[in-house]
Amino acid sequence: MTDSARTFLEKAHEERSKYSQKNKASPGFYYYLYSTALMINDFNAALKYLNISMAQQRRINREYAAEDLNKTRAGFDYGLQNERISKLKLENELKRQSIVRQKMIIGFAGTILIILFIFLYLMRRQLRTLKNAYKNMVRKYLEIDSLNKSLTSCEKKAVSMSTRLTIKDEEKLYLKAKKLFE
Q1: Which of 5, 30, 61, 69 could form a disulfide with 53 if both were Cys (CB 3.0 to 4.6 A apart)?
Q2: Helices 2-18 and 27-39 meet at what angle, rounded to 10?
Q3: What is the C-alpha to C-alpha distance for residues 144 and 180, in angstroms, rounded to an integer?
């Protein structure tokens, strides 16, 4: 009975070995072969199947560990990327606020310059008006002075001349003075 069991164990191993993808992914199958080899006291075959089972189990464990490690790395990278994104968003917000402040300062300075130009324009216009008014006033004072001189000379003449002539000259002077003040 042990010879036929050994034969069937070998055939099972050969059949399984034909399918390379199943051969690499079946530690449980080889563990059952190991258990069967122990039952029939074929310790060499049992050791062979146990080694194959353990090697496949280690390989599967390494693959799972590598998968877990990749997932952990991916999670860590995802966290780092989120932190970078948050940092970039914060820097972007700070730059935006800085730009807004600069625009406000430029707008404020522009407004002050416009107000200053308007003020200077109004002051210049006011000074021009005052200058023209001063020129007119000086001209009027000169006319008044010339009228005053004329009056003084007329008064001197009036004393020496007749009354009728003095009244005519005074009326002319009065009309000129009236025109001047209008």
Answers
A1: 30
A2: 170
A3: 8
The b-or-e profile of 14-38 (16+ CB within 10 A means b, else e) is eebeeeeeebeebbebbbebbebbe
pLDDT in tens, 69-84: 999 999 999 999 999 9
Higher pLDDT, 47 or 7: 47
Distance of CA 53 to the CA centre of its chain: 62
Q: Compute the distance between CA of residue 114 and CA of residue 102 in angstroms, rounded to an integer.
A: 18
Per-residue tokens: 93: 């917000």
- Strand segments, DSSP code E, in 16-147 are none
Q: How confident is the model over 129-180, as pLDDT tens digits?
A: 999 999 988 888 888 888 877 777 766 665 555 444 445 566 777 777 777 7
CA dist., res. 50 & res. 55, Å (int): 8
